[in-house]
Amino acid sequence: MRITQAFAGTATAALVERYGTPLVARGMERSEQMVRRYARLADDEPWPAHTMGQMISRLALFCRAKATADNFRLDATEPGPLGERQVILAWVGWLDPARFPGDKGPVLPEGARIYAEMSAFVERRVGRTEAAA
Question: CB atoms < 10 A from the CB of 71, how many?
């Protein structure tokens, strides 16, 4: 649960950094204040699993909408919540400036790799934040 919460927080922070709080808030159909709070999830007390599930779903919808607007399709290969995490990882990973220059689009991680990639993503983002401080 903690890795999911940290992932949701860092993914929200990465999307806010790229698109701005108002756009992400509108895309997730939440207030700007809630989106700012979501971006701090990695440091907050644990949230209920139901709330985290709703947030992951909204983040996945936002990522699919942005990908569609940029002429990419993000169709998860895994069903349900695992597929939603795939979509978020693929889109946020594709926005990462460390990507290879010739990449044509986001790559969806396999189901077995999703949680390892979530952990690596959180560690990378937290490492960047600490290095900047």
Answer: 7
Q: Is the pTM of this model over 0.90?
A: no
**What is the SS3 string spanning the chain?**
CHHHHHHHHHHHHHHHHHHCHHHHHHHCCCCHHHHHHHCCHHHCCCCCHHHHHHHHHHHHHHHHHHHHHCCCCCCCCCCHHHHHHHHHHHHHHHHCCCCCCCCCCCCCCCHHHHHHHHHHHHHHHHHHHHHHC
Domain regions of the chain by residue span: 2-132
**Sign of the dihedral defined by the CA atoms of residues 33, 51, 1, 63, in that order:** negative
For the stretch 24-72, pLDDT in tens is: 999 888 899 989 888 887 666 778 888 888 999 999 999 999 999 988 8
